C-alpha cells in the first residue's frame, strides 16, 4: 500500500488483539489528503481501536500504520486533532482555558490559542460561556468545547470518534459545517459513526467495518452500486422483456391501459439505460422513478442486521 505525499493515513495489514478478542483483523486502507472519510460500523466493529492505534494510544499486534508520512507517535500531535468517544475534560477549568490548554499541548503560543479559542467559542454560540467552568455547561455545550479543543490547532488530520452522538439536531448541523470548513481549509477529516445519514451527507469515501474486518471501501456511489437499482414505473406495456430488467412486479391497472409496476434491475445496470430502451421499444411511460439504495440498505446488505445493530 502506498504512503506517498498524497496519503494522509494508511493501514497495512493491521491487526489488534486484546487477549482472545480480535478487535481489528488484517485491516488495510488508505485515506488521501483533503478527503472527508467515514469510518462506519456497528458497535464493537473496531472503529475506536483503529483510531487509537493511529494516535499511538495503543499499538497494533501486527501490521504497519503510516500517518502524515510518519509512524504513529507524539511527534504528530501538533498536526492532528482528535475528538475521543468518551468525553471528559477538567471539570473546574473554564471553557476558554480548556481550549487554550489543549492548544498549548499542541505547541501553540498561549496568545494564539486564546485568539483561536475565542473565535471557536463565538462560532459555536458559546462566547457567553467562555469563563464558565466546564462542570456548569450542559453535555452538548461541553461536547462543543471538546470539539474546539480538537480543532484549535487547525490540524492537517482531524479524527472524530462518534462526534454526532449526544448532539441535538442544531448542533449536529454545526458539527457538519465544522467538518466541511476543515475540509475546505485542506484538512483530512476522518470520523466514525454508526449513523449513516451523516456519512451520506459528508463523506468523499467511506470504510465499512464489521467484526474488525473491512467489508467495503469506496465512494458513496460505489457503495450504492453494490445493490441493484429499483424503479417505480407507470407504463402501458410490460417492461419485463427489456434487457437489464431482472424482475417486474406488476401492480394494479389505473385506467386507460396504464399500469403501475416495480422493477428490479440487474446489478450494474443504470436506470438511464432502461429508459433509453423504453424509448427505443416505443413503450409509453407516465412515471419513471429511481429508488436509490441508501447507505443503510448497503450496510444491511454487506453486514446483515446483526452487524448493523447499534
Ligand atoms: N482495551 C480493551 N480490552 C479488551 N477488549 C477491547 C478493548 N478495547 C476494545 N475491545 C474490544 O474490541 C472490539 C472492538 O471495540 P471498539 O471499541 O474498537 O469498537 P467500535 O467500533 O468503536 O464500537 P462502538 O461503536 O460500540 O464504539 C470489541 O469487541 C471490544 O470489546
What would you note in describing this structure?
The protein has 310 residues and is α/β, with parallel strands linked by helices. It has two domains: 7-224, P-loop containing nucleotide triphosphate hydrolases (Rossmann fold, 3-Layer(aba) Sandwich), CATH 3.40.50.300; 230-292, Alpha-Beta Plaits. The protein is built from nine helices and 13 strands. It has helices spanning 47-54, 95-105, 110-123, 139-151, 169-184, 196-202, 220-224, 271-280, 295-308, and strands at 7-18, 21-32, 36-40, 62-67, 80-83, 157-161, 188-193, 205-210, 213-218, 230-235, 245-253, 259-265, 285-291. The strands form three sheets. Strands 5-6-7-3-8-9 form a six-stranded mixed beta sheet, with helices on both faces. A four-stranded antiparallel beta sheet has the order 11-12-10-13, with helices on one face. The chain has a three-stranded antiparallel beta sheet with strand order 2-1-4, with helices on one face. A hairpin with a 2-residue loop joins strand 1 and strand 2 (21-32). It is elongated. The mean pLDDT is 90. The protein binds adenosine-5'-triphosphate (ATP). The site of adenosine-5'-triphosphate has 13 residues, from strand 2 and helix 1. InterPro entries: AAA+_ATPase, ABC_transporter-like_ATP-bd, ABC_transporter-like_CS, ABC_transporter_ATP-binding, DrrA1/2-like_C, P-loop_NTPase. It comes from Sphingosinicella rhizophila.
Spatial arrangement of strands, main beta sheet: 5-6-7-3-8-9
Query: What spatial form do the alpha-carbon principal axes imply?
Result: elongated
Report the C-alpha radius of gyration, rounded. Answer: 24 Å
The CATH C-level name of the largest domain is: Alpha Beta
Small molecules in complex: adenosine-5'-triphosphate
| CATH architecture assignment name of the largest domain | 3-Layer(aba) Sandwich
Would you count the extended β strands for me?
Answer: 13
String of helices and strands: EEEHEEHHHEHEHEEHEEEHEH
At the fourth level of CATH, the homologous superfamily of the largest domain is P-loop containing nucleotide triphosphate hydrolases
User: How much of the polypeptide forms β-strand, as a percent range?
Assistant: 25-35%
Q: What about the largest sheet?
A: 6 strands, mixed
Structural class: alpha/beta
Helix proportion: 25-40%
Look at the structure and give the mean pLDDT. Answer: 90
Amino acid at each position: 500500500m502506498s504512503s506517498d505525499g498524497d496519503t494522509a493515513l494508511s493501514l497495512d495489514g493491521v491487526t489488534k488483539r486484546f487477549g482472545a478478542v480480535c478487535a481489528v483483523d488484517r485491516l488495510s486502507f488508505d485515506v488521501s489528503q483533503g478527503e472527508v472519510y467515514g469510518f462506519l460500523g456497528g458497535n464493537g466493529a473496531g472503529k475506536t481501536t483503529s483510531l487509537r492505534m493511529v494516535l499511538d494510544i495503543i499499538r497494533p499486534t501486527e501490521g504497519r500504520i503510516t500517518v502524515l508520512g510518519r509512524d504513529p507517535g507524539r511527534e504528530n500531535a501538533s498536526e492532528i486533532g482528535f475528538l475521543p468517544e468518551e468525553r471528559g475534560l477538567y471539570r473546574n477549568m473554564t471553557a476558554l482555558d480548556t481550549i487554550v490548554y489543549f492548544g498549548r499541548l499542541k505547541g501553540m503560543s498561549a496568545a494564539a490559542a486564546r485568539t483561536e479559542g475565542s473565535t471557536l467559542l463565538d462560532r459555536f454560540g458559546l462566547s457567553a460561556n467562555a469563563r464558565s467552568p466546564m462542570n456548569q455547561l450542559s453535555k452538548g455545550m461541553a461536547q462543543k468545547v471538546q470539539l474546539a479543543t480538537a480543532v484549535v490547532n487547525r490540524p492537517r488530520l482531524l479524527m472524530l470518534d462518534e462526534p454526532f452522538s449526544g448532539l441535538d439536531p442544531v448542533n449536529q448541523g454545526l458539527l457538519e459545517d465544522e467538518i466541511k470548513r476543515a475540509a475546505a481549509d485542506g484538512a483530512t477529516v476522518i470520523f466514525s459513526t454508526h449513523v449513516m445519514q451523516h456519512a451520506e451527507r459528508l463523506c468523499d469515501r467511506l470504510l465499512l467495518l464489521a467484526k474488525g474486518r473491512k467489508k467495503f471501501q469506496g465512494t458513496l456511489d460505489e457503495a450504492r452500486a453494490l445493490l441493484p437499482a429499483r424503479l417505480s414505473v407507470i407504463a402501458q406495456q410490460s417492461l419485463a422483456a427489456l434487457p437489464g430488467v431482472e424482475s417486474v412486479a406488476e401492480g394494479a391497472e389505473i385506467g386507460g391501459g396504464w399500469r403501475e409496476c416495480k422493477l428490479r434491475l440487474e446489478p450494474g445496470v443504470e436506470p438511464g439505460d432502461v429508459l433509453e430502451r423504453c424509448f427505443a421499444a416505443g413503450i409509453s411511460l407516465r412515471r419513471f422513478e429511481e429508488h436509490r439504495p441508501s447507505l443503510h440498505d448497503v450496510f444491511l446488505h454487506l453486514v446483515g442486521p446483526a452487524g448493523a445493530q447499534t
